[in-house]
Every structure is written in structure tokens, then in C-alpha cells.
Design goal:
- This protein is mainly beta.
- It is about 10% helix and about 35% strand.
- The chain has one helix and ten strands, in the order H-E-E-E-E-E-E-E-E-E-E.
- It is elongated, with a radius of gyration of 23 Å.
- The protein starts with a helix and ends in a 29-residue tail after the last strand.
- About 10% of the residues have low confidence.
């Protein structure tokens, strides 16, 4: 009888672990610049414990999560939206992915399923008189159009 109770308890414990999941529903954009905001909508199934934190993590430029970078978080136990920011140091590339993790229980979603392109911030070139006095009037400066 005690083996039966242990088996039932183990099955119930295991099934409750598999009942919890996180899924990414959508991203606000799949083409962003460094330092740009991005929103990640996610849904959950199962029960998440009080104090849980959902974290959005960015892969490297080829979609590898060996060393993910946390880009945003949300303290919640339900579906939600994580407001995140692409890091200034992210290398320009077209193979990034995002995943969402939770802290209680510890889970990781599948990645968002679509490559994300991160573009480097442009370096503006300003032309015009470099020596300008406060009283100088009529100085003209121009900045060429920067794609992106």
C-alpha cells in the first residue's frame, strides 16, 4: 500500500510540474536599434507563486542562449507584458531571439520563433562652423539623413 501511495504522490507531483508553462505571444517589433524599447507579451498556464518574476532574455546575434542577457522583468503570477530595452552594447545582427523565464517555479519559454534584427545606433556627422559664439546668429548646421 505504501508503494502505491508513493507512486500516486510522485505522479501528482510530476504532473503539476508539467502543467506550468510560459509562451511568448508577440513582440512589439522584430527590427530594433540598440537602446530601443521592446514589449514582450506572454501567457502562462498553471500556478505561479507569489514573488515570481518573469524575465525577458536576449540571445546572442546567432540565437544562442548560452549566456542570455536580461533585458526586462515583471513581478507577476499571470499573463502580462514585459517592457524591455535592447542593450547599447548589443552587436548589430539579424539572428537574435528572446525567451521568457520565471523564478517561482523556475521555467523557460521557447524562444519567440522569429529572428530579431538589431541595428547599431548611427553616428551623426554634423557639418558647419565648429567655433560658435553665443552671440553668433544665422549659423547653419546640417546632419545627413541616416537610414533606420
Amino acid at each position: 500500500m505504501s508503494r502505491f501511495v508513493l507512486l500516486v504522490a510522485t505522479c501528482l507531483s510530476t504532473s503539476s510540474l508539467f502543467a506550468q508553462s510560459i509562451s511568448i505571444v508577440s513582440l512589439s517589433s522584430t527590427s530594433v536599434c540598440q537602446e530601443e524599447a521592446i514589449s514582450i507579451d506572454y501567457t502562462v498556464t498553471g500556478i505561479f507563486n507569489a514573488g515570481n518574476i518573469f524575465k525577458a532574455e536576449l540571445s546572442d546575434e546567432v540565437g544562442d542562449f548560452s549566456t542570455p542577457v536580461e533585458i526586462g522583468s515583471l513581478s507577476s503570477i499571470t499573463d502580462g507584458t514585459i517592457n524591455a530595452t535592447i542593450p547599447a552594447g548589443a552587436v548589430a545582427g539579424a539572428g537574435y531571439r528572446i525567451q521568457v523565464t520565471s523564478t517561482d517555479p523556475t521555467l523557460t519559454s521557447a524562444n519567440n520563433g522569429v529572428d530579431i534584427t538589431i541595428t547599431a545606433l548611427p553616428t551623426p556627422v554634423i557639418t558647419g562652423n565648429v567655433n560658435v559664439c553665443e552671440s553668433a546668429a544665422g549659423e547653419v548646421y546640417s546632419v545627413p539623413n541616416v537610414p533606420g
